[in-house]
Amino acid sequence: MKKYILLLVFLWTTMGSFAHSPDASTIVLAEQKNNVWVLQINASLTAFQQEVRTHFAETPYKTPEEFQEMVIAHIKNKLRFTFNNGEQIILGKGVVKLGHETKVVFEVLNIPTEITSVNISNKVFSDINRNQSTLMIFKEGFAKDHFTLDKTNDHTITLVVKDNKFIEKTEQNAGVSPSLIILGLIASICLGLLIKNIMLLREKSVSENI
């Protein structure tokens, strides 16, 4: 199972030409044996360099090792996974594999055995215009799917578990939708104008009959 997951991650994350695009990245959270999880983030080296220069401008790196430490610190500060409405994961030791497509791999701690929901907020590349991340969660026995985090959802998504599958949570708002409120206001204004015109016509008709 472990080899299958790693092979699938490798094939999926290396497809296409996104590796050279600073506005595209992937986030893969994969379960291994005994509830051991790993997190892998793939993005272009340019994207990581831009973020490090932005957030560590006062302490620029001088060696590749310093750059790698800054990348790990930046990810830990900007990426959040929260499970079951409150249990936040802990990113353990991270390893950075530099290249045109740079990979950062973490051991992940504190993921519950039974998962009912997960909220993900990815601000790692928030300083890059039009940045978009593809999220994949591989859990044994679960269907495989992917999700997109971008500007339209503020790089945040909530997934719920249903029938051994992660699906995007839809907001069930018991209140009235904004569009209905606007339509209601327009209808109220129109009704008010109609009543006013009727009253004016009645007043005019009364005055003419006097």
**Uncertain spans:** 3-18, 172-176
What radius of gyration results from the CA coordinates? 26 Å
Major sheet attributes: 6 strands, mixed
Alpha plus pi helix count? 4
% residues in beta strands? 25-35%
What global shape is seen?
flat
Overview in brief:
With 210 residues, the chain is of the alpha+beta class. The chain has helices spanning 2-13, 45-55, 64-78, 178-209, and strands at 24-31, 37-44, 79-83, 87-88, 90-97, 101-109, 117-122, 132-138, 146-149, 156-161, 166-168.
Task: List the main descriptive attributes of the protein structure presented here.
210 residues; alpha+beta; six-stranded mixed β-sheet; five-stranded antiparallel β-sheet; disordered N terminus
Please write out the topology:
Blueprint: H1 2-13, E1 24-31, E2 37-44, H2 45-55, H3 64-78, E3 79-83, E4 87-88, E5 90-97, E6 101-109, E7 117-122, E8 132-138, E9 146-149, E10 156-161, E11 166-168, H4 178-209
Parallel strand pairs: 1-8
Antiparallel strand pairs: 1-2, 2-6, 3-4, 3-7, 5-6, 7-10, 8-9, 10-11
Helix pairs in contact: 2-3
